[in-house]
Amino acid sequence: MRENASNIPCSPTAARVPFPQIGLHSSLFSAVHRQSTWINFCVAWIVSALSYLLLLPFGEVNDLEPNPALCMTQAALVYGAPVVASYATLSLIVQLFINVYNHLREPGDPPKGLTIKIFWLLVCPWILYAIIIVDALEQGLLHMDKVQRGLAFCYVSTNVPGRISAGLTALALLVTVSLEVVVVVVLYRRWRLYRSLPVTKVPPLEMLVRVAAFTVFAFVAICLAGLLVTIRVDSYVDQLILAVMPVAAFLSLGINKDILSVWTQRKGQMIDPRKIAEEEDQGRGYHLPATA
Q1: What is the reported pTM?
Q2: What is the DSSP string of 66-78?
Q3: Which domain of life does this protein belong to (predicted)?
C-alpha cells in the first residue's frame, strides 16, 4: 500500500524480537564491547518496531475505526520509524567506515586519520525522527478525515508524510550502500592480498561476508522504497517482504561471536567472549574496533 512506502528498513513482527536481546546482552556482559553508534542502532530499531504496536496496548488492534487521536499518533510514529532506523544504520556504517580507514592506513599516509563527532552520529537520526513526526502530526491535524486505518497500522492518506519519509529513507540507504561498497572492496582487496601471510591487518572472511550481505539487503531496500513510493500496493505481500529487512540487519550487523558466546555453553561452562577475541587475534592476526 502506498502509505507503507516509508516502511523500508523495519517491520514490527520481525524487528521487535532480536534487537532487545542483543542490546541487553551488550549491556549486561562486560566482555561484549560495542560502540555507542551500535547501541543507538539497536535502540532506533526497537523504537521503530514499537511504533507499529501502539494500538495493541489500548485494545484497538482489531478495531477498524480506532480512536482518532491514537490513530493519528501512530501514523506519525510510523512515518518517523523508517527514518530513525535508516539514519541510525547510516551512523553505524559511517563509524565502521572510519574505523576501517584508520585501521588500514599505510605507514606513508597522513598521521591523522578520519575523525567525526560521535555526538552528531547519535543525535542526527533522532532530530530527523522528530521532524517527520511533527510534519505528520501537522498533516493529520489539518486533514483529520485523511487519518485512516490500513491493513496493519494507521496512516495519513494525503501521501505527503509518506513521500517525505520514503525519500529520506532512500537517501540514507543510498549513502549507506555506497559506504558499504567501499568497505567491502577495501577489505576484500586486503584479505585477498594478505590472507596467506601472518600479518596484522588481514580482515577475516566472516567480516567480508557480513558487510557484503547487508549491502545487498540495503540495495533491495532502496529498490523497494522506489517501488512502493511510485505505485500502489494494497496487500500483505509488501509487509512480508519488508519483514525481511530487520532480520537482515540483525544477522549481518547485530550478531558476532562474542554475543553468541553468551548464548552457548561448552562442556557445561559458559564460553568467555574475551577468549574468543584472543583466539581470533592469535589465529588471524587481525582485530578491528568493535562497531558491528
Answers
A1: 0.71
A2: --HHHHHHHHHHH
A3: Eukaryota
